[in-house]
Amino acid sequence: xxxxxxxxxxxxxxxxxxxxxxxxxxxxxxxxxxxxxxxxxxxxxxxxxxxxxxxxxxxxxxxxxxxxxxxxxxxxxxxxxxxxxxxxxxxxxxxxxxxxxxxxxxxxxxxxxxxxxxxxxxxxxxxxxxxxxxxxxxxxxxxxxxxxxxxxxxxxxxxxxxxxxxxxxxxxxxxxxxxxxxxxxxxxxxxxxxxxxxxxxxxxxxxxxxxxxxxxxxxxxxxxxxxxxxxxxxxxxxxxxxxxxxxxxxxxxxxxxxxxxxxxxxxxxxxxxxxxxxxxxxxxxxxxxxxxxxxxxxxxxxxxxxxxxxxxxxxxxxxxxxxxxxxxxxxxxxxxxxxxxxxxxxxxxxxxxxxxxxxxxxxx
Length: 364
Known about the structure:
The chain is built from twelve helices and 20 strands. By secondary structure, the chain is α+β, with helices and mostly antiparallel strands. The strands form four sheets. An eight-stranded antiparallel β-sheet has the order 14-13-10-6-5-18-19-20, covered by helices on one side. The protein has a five-stranded parallel β-sheet with strand order 2-1-3-4-8, with helices on both faces.
């Protein structure tokens, strides 16, 4: 859908979304150095965010990616270019307080034909910048509704816009309190057991280290998450939601863990990419996160992890890097969320042997 600048000022949903991202998610204040990292398709929201940052007496800059640039880079870059660390980008990140990422894909399968080894190599090079952004700045990710995302979801652009803006239409401070109550229950537990279709998985977690995903770093929010003890994950799990990774659709992932490590990994489709991601580095074959979706305004998969992992009644396991706020010890350039639906009959989460969730509903 084409927007003009005048449309930005007229669409109240854009203004509301911008206010949530600036005032709630990243808490922009006077003097903050703000990067608005965006793509052309998200220009209406980027301009609304830019205006609000200026009104807050911050110093925003817009970094807008050109459609197709990723494909051109991975298609034609030589090894020395793939392996070159962008020192200027690192310098900019070290001198930034807030990063607001607005993704607006024009083609979700853009990198489907690229060798996964090239993508994995570049991800390792860029990891120091990613880690600095995650650990040293106030940041948020938001996927702006585009025709490409709508097509991926099997919706019209109008349906998808309504879906996106409904998913973020919360009283976020009130919703955060609800998420903290759920996290407090997890924080009392040491042992977690997950049961479901083709799934019998257990692990131990650090008490007191379950964190709320309440829209501060990801918008929409709506999850609680923690880090498994690195060597504690044992059993098998089947992920019934597809994952689009670097333009490749990975479906029907089945993982088996032994003493924390993935010892068997298969997929109904996307097997090559799955194997490349797991082999990315020393930590990519371990689980770095256990997340529980709590946003019941999101009811269906749209083939977009930012939304799918928040679906109320789902869980996700992230292969690779663990978040330090969860006291996670696993380090990796990979962080890949794989999602399982626990709304099916017979599914459950147990905390220290006690039922915490049954068929996607919390037992409070």
